[in-house]
Specification:
By secondary structure, the chain is an alpha/beta fold. The chain has one domain: Rossmann fold. The protein is built from 10 helices and 10 strands. Strands 6-7-8-3-9-10 form a 6-stranded mixed sheet, sandwiched between helices. Strands 2-1-4-5 form a 4-stranded antiparallel sheet, with helices on one face. β4 and β5 form a beta hairpin. The protein binds adenosine-5'-triphosphate and magnesium ion. Adenosine-5'-triphosphate (ATP) binds at residues 14, 17, 19, 39-45, 57, 229. Adenosine-5'-triphosphate binds at residues 14, 17, 19, 39-45, 57, 229.
Length: 258
């Protein structure tokens, strides 16, 4: 079966600085993959190469291939905007559009992408908010500003906004690091539900979180500051946390460094 994501020989640069080097990995559809590793090893940089966001940074440049369902996202004639529709992103800090209502936040991507009748929009907004486990909390305040929600609610609003356009893949860069423990558990539960419909890649510094939510875990590391980050190993999460192949992985997950 085709892989949802198939990366080979990927290098990512900022100007002349090689930030991540020679990454190859695959991701199955409807799975959760966690990226772990010490600060600066290139997790966020690599994540952003998966939806062509890296090149938005000045000097950002990518070599190698990222296949999404067998199509190279870096091939000739590929529209990065279309890629970002297929591969959505949720950031560390919840970033709802501050002046927009809850409803408009969720509908924003849909309105950019096509013409929908009001009734259709209503339906997708409700489905997306339900999908993000937020509907019950906001159904009576759909026309209030999204920025008036709690941090955890805002993050679920951002997830609702991301899933409203039905992406194939959802990238999440430390989506819980600004949240309290209850909101964090709510997002973790949600990830378990969302993987029935989407393929998820999540960066986390929380080992328990990686162990709880992911099917596969990728450990990244760098030899020294200024050296490129590399993928050390990727395997079933259970195996990474019980019996990794590489000593550095074991040292990292047992808290000996990083
Ligand atoms: N905009 C940028 N311009 C230049 N270098 C950058 C930029 N963003 C990141 N880097 C560098 O690229 C390397 C990888 O950074 P990245 O943010 O991907 O690491 P990370 O693993 O996500 O770290 P953290 O766990 O702290 O979020 C680091 O050396 C970092 O300093
Ligand atoms: Mg990061």
């Amino acid at each position: 079966m085709a892989k949802r994501i198939d990366v080979s020989g990927l290098n990512a640069y900022y100007g002349s600085f090689l930030a991540v080097e020679d990454i190859s990995m695959t991701v199955e559809p409807r799975s959760v993959t966690a990226f772990i590793g010490p600060s600066g090893c290139g997790k966020s940089t690599f994540l952003r190469t998966l939806n062509r966001m890296h090149e938005v940074t000045p000097g950002g440049r990518v070599e190698g291939k990222v296949l999404l369902d067998d199509e190279n996202l870096y091939g000739a004639g590929i529209d990065p905007v279309a890629v970002r529709r297929e591969v959505g992103m949720v950031f560390q800090r919840p970033n709802p559009f501050p002046t927009m209502s809850v409803y408009d936040n969720v509908a924003a991507g849909l309105r950019l992408n096509g013409k929908y009748k009001k009734a259709q929009l209503d339906e997708i907004v409700e489905k997306s908010l339900k999908g993000a486990n937020l509907w019950n909390e906001v159904k009576d305040r759909l026309n209030k500003p999204g920025s008036g929600l709690s941090g955890g609610q805002q993050q679920r609003l951002c997830i609702a906004r991301a899933i409203a356009v039905e992406p194939k893949v959802l990238l999440m860069d430390e989506p819980c690091s600004a949240l309290d423990p209850i909101s964090t558990l709510a997002i973790e539960d949600l990830i378990g539900e969302l993987k029935e419909r989407f393929t998820i890649v999540i960066v986390t510094h929380n080992m328990q979180q990686a162990a709880r939510v992911s099917d596969r875990t990728a450990f990244f590391n760098l030899a020294a500051v200024g050296q490129p980050g590399k993928l050390i190993e990727i395997d079933d999460t259970e195996r990474i946390f019980s019996n990794p192949s590489v000593q550095a992985t074991e040292d990292y997950i047992s808290g000996r460094f990083g």
